[in-house]
Specification:
- With about 475 residues, this protein is α+β, with helices and mostly antiparallel strands.
- The protein has 4 domains: about 140 residues, Immunoglobulin-like, CATH 2.60.40; about 100 residues, Sandwich (Immunoglobulin-like); about 90 residues, no CATH class; about 110 residues, no CATH class.
- Helix content is about 20%, strand content about 35%.
- The chain contains 9 helices and 23 strands.
- Strands 9, 10, 11, 12, 14 and 17 form a 6-stranded antiparallel beta sheet that branches. Strands 3, 4, 5, 7 and 8 form a 5-stranded antiparallel beta sheet that branches.
Length: about 475
């Protein structure tokens, strides 16, 4: 645990990479106790390999090398421990982070832990961290270890992995920042009692928001029973999906059967959660609307999210797919509420109008594969609305059945004179696929006419079939005329 008055040298960049990045290293120092009651310091190290020099290997593989020196001193600068190790990343096309652990058995007292890292490929690039560690004595009474923030937690599968303790594997949270991808706050600690184990001892957990390093608001409080074991390893897994961006402090108190605090530990962390920040702003003053989305049947919620997919572009579309596949019911409801609350003053009527439109499109453009709004025609209708003109042709000689949709102007981006051409190459059902369009961001195929008239391959303009983009004029061959006029 860091002392209030401790010297703490923030991770700093002693040399920069050519592209301006500096080396990054995070060190997590904690005080634990052995089963015999002896104190030790555990120094867990996370090194971001992207900021270090990679050497090229065969088959386009790369490898990163970092040399670590760990020094433990007393506050009076007396040398206690020195360790050196060379770390090599496994050969890969994209090296992952380095993880390493130092453990030092020490006497109770105050120490300075110094970690220096040097780039194995470029020794001029280095970085150093100095942190204070308070090591407490254990006299047999109830006592807590320090708290360790963890990510990637799972049951331990071997006794040799240095990141396993008491059957629990967990990696350090880099720079104590719990990002938006981590919904669960994982914290490991131990409590020890060599002499007596109170039968009704409990842990009290409090999560407090910080401002400028000081507590300003109690966010939540809860309790857990302590097991009647001499050593009680505890993995706290607390849902923080709704925790907005900010600085927080987790405090763990060990209380006896009378509610007296026997010992306490705390750790601070930064939460980054832009998704919930947006929702929190929208929820304020809109409780009734939020309750409406919370009360919707789950199948209705998922139907609404699927219908939104045509309206969501880029990386957000992938996020919607992930939301449908993996996310919890609560996250799906929040997403649906957030989408309409962000865009409309009254989210509920807007959602109901949208759902009626989705149901119409679903019914109109059924193709036998998924919902109607997931077909190409349904997607375009959902995104751009009713076309100003539709040309349908089912029996043109040599052509697959096709439709041409014309829009005078897209409200989506203001583009004018837009055309979409759908065709049905399977000649079954109504699975019309988008073959070509003039819309920005939609499929554009310069050989669309060759594909549409694929059944008459020898009537293209020019002698090279593979380079041809147009067909020769033919009897009732009118697709290009329809499309361009």
């Amino acid at each position: 645990m860091k002392l209030p008055f401790a010297l703490y040298l923030v991770v700093h960049c002693l040399a920069e990479m050519p592209e301006g990045r500096c080396q990054e290293i995070f060190v997590q120092n904690c005080n634990f106790f052995s089963p015999e009651g002896d104190s030790y310091v555990e120094s867990r190290i996370y090194i971001d390999s992207k900021s270090w020099t990679a050497s090229m290997l065969e088959d386009s593989m790369v490898q990163v090398e970092v040399h670590l020196t760990a020094i433990l001193r007393t506050w009076q600068q007396e040398l206690v421990q020195v360790e050196r190790v060379a770390l090599l990343s496994p050969p890969s096309r994209k090296p992952g982070p380095f993880l390493h652990v130092f453990r030092w058995p020490v006497l109770p007292g105050n120490y300075l832990a110094e970690i220096n890292a040097v780039d194995g490929q470029n020794p001029e690039l280095s970085i150093g961290v100095i942190d204070s560690v308070a090591v407490r004595p254990f006299f047999g009474e109830l006592i807590l270890s320090d708290l360790q923030l963890m990510q990637g937690v799972r049951p331990g599968d071997s006794g040799s992995n240095p990141f396993e303790k008491n059957g629990i594997y967990g990696e350090p949270v880099p720079f104590d920042v719990v990002d938006r991808m981590q919904r669960i706050l994982n914290v490991y600690f131990e409590s020890h009692s060599a002499d007596s184990i109170p039968p009704k001892a409990v842990y009290r957990f409090t999560l407090t928001r910080l401002r400028d390093g000081s507590p300003v608001e109690l966010h939540s409080e809860w309790f857990r029973r302590r097991k009647q074991l001499s050593i009680d390893p505890f993995l706290l897994s607390h849902d923080i999906s709704e925790l907005t961006t900010g600085d927080y402090r987790l405090t763990v108190e060990l209380q006896d059967e009378r509610g007296h605090v026997v010992d306490s530990r705390q750790c601070d962390f930064r939460r980054e959660n832009p998704f919930w920040d947006q929702i929190a702003r929208q929820i304020e003053g809109r409780v009734a609307e939020r309750n409406y989305f919370d009360s919707l049947p789950l199948d209705r919620v998922e139907y609404g999210i699927r219908a939104l997919h045509p309206l969501i572009e880029g990386a957000e579309g992938s996020a919607v797919n992930l939301l449908l596949k993996r996310s919890r019911e609560r996250d799906k409801r929040l997403f649906l509420f957030s989408y309409f609350a962000e865009r409309y003053d009254t989210a509920v009527p807007a959602f109901e109008i949208f759902i009626r439109r989705a149901e119409y499109v679903d019914k109109t453009f059924q193709s036998g594969f998924g919902y109607g709004f997931e077909s190409d025609r349904g997607r375009i209708y959902m995104r751009y609305g009713i076309p100003d003109e539709v040309i349908r042709e089912e029996r043109e000689p040599g052509a697959f059945p096709y439709e041409i949709w014309k829009y005078n102007k897209l409200t989506h981006n203001g583009q004018t004179n837009v055309r979409f051409l759908f065709y049905n190459p399977d000649l079954a059902g109504s699975d019309f696929r988008l073959l070509h369009s003039t819309a920005i961001g939609e499929r554009q195929n310069r050989r669309w006419e060759i594909e549409l008239y694929r059944n008459v391959p020898n009537e293209q303009k020019g002698s090279d079939f593979f380079e041809a983009t147009e067909m020769l004029p033919g009897f009732n061959r009118r697709a290009r005329e329809y499309f361009e006029n």
